[in-house]
User: What shape does this take?
Amino acid sequence: MGEFIKGRQTADVITLEVKKGVEDLKTQNVKPKLMIVRVGERVDDLSYEKAAIKRMKSCDIGCEVTVLPGDVSQDDFIGILKAVNGDSTVHGILLFRPLPEQIDENTVKHIISPEKDIDCFNPANVAKIAEGDKTGFAPCTPTAAMEILKHNSIQLRGKKAVIIGRSLVVGKPMALLLLEEDATVTICHSKTAELAKVASEADILVAAIGRARMITEDFVKEGAVVIDVGINMDEEGNLCGDVDTERCKDKSSYITPVPAGVGSVTTAVLAKHVLKACQLIKFAQEQTI
Assistant: This one.
């Protein structure tokens, strides 16, 4: 039977590191600050917002929320986002996505400056992740998955990793992060031929396709590490992942549950990114003096 990898221990380690970094900045009269920008009242956004605020408080990081109506016009949205980006007291900006259909993401994704773009919305950060530039910010969710793998000493070098999902939020950046650790990576999606067969060859299987309990034991190689990034609601309204955990746990060596898995580490990574952004901005300012 596979061992459950819960995220709390990983999150606690990251949080402790962040607290130390924040304390150091405070001795220099600098306090990191996160600005959350939310459009509308999506349930998953509200849930993440609540968890993020709690995590920032525990790390002594300042946090504010800018809330916009769901029908906000693109012009008004751009004006407010530019104002947030120009606020010198703000070091990191988290913009909840997807945005409403009246707002063109391709138009607005350049507004948040790369140094404050802590969840990889600006294409400049996407490019940095592709290049392995450590000054960039990968999206928080795949970074959280990587933190769990590293914290649990799971070997990545030379291992075959299969990612089911190709979004810019999880799938593609997850592939780049795994490549950086010398894994051999395959990205699959809903159009992949013989998807279960391809997945069942993976030493490390990452499920990020957004379909409740889609991944069954047929997708899992004996002894594989299964990382479930999915956040879904089942027919009974319960939170569940992309993996049918009960059917897959006996074949896997390690498996992350939903809830209490990758999601519980994401806000810790968010705090870590705010700290990093603050440190980089401070350094840049010192260089110009």
Q: What stands out?
A: The domain at 29-113 is CATH 3.40.50.10860 (Rossmann fold).
